[in-house]
Specification:
With 88 residues, the protein is mainly α. The protein has one domain. The chain is 55% helix and 0% strand. The protein is built from four helices and no strands. The longest helix is centred in the middle third of the chain and has 20 residues. The radius of gyration is 20 Å and the shape is extended. The mean pLDDT is 84. It is a single-pass membrane protein. InterPro entries: F1F0-ATPsyn_F_prd.
Length: 88
């Protein structure tokens, strides 16, 4: 028999499309809940890529790539005007 998991305890990957709005409404959107979500994400990332026996540059390079992409998105408006064009 399949065990029934309460909607609040389901992970996003286990939620069906029809249950998605109900699942989203059950999330905690208070500042404490959002901070807890960021903290869980940080610890999950840290334990998976940084705090390992045989580490590599993968964890640091992903953070660096995200930083570069974020800064590019933030400065895209200014960079858009500096493109080389055929006719000025």
């Amino acid at each position: 028999m399949a065990s029934v998991v309460p909607m609040k305890e389901k992970k996003l990957m286990d939620v069906k499309i029809g249950e998605l709005p109900k699942w989203i409404l059950m999330r905690d959107f208070t500042p404490k809940g959002i901070a807890g979500a960021f903290q869980r994400g940080y610890y999950r990332y840290y334990n998976k890529y940084v705090n390992v026996k045989k580490g590599s540059v993968a964890g640091v390079s992903m953070v660096l790539a995200a930083y570069v992409l974020f800064n590019y998105c933030c400065s895209y408006k200014e960079l858009k005007h500096e493109r080389r064009r055929k006719y000025h």
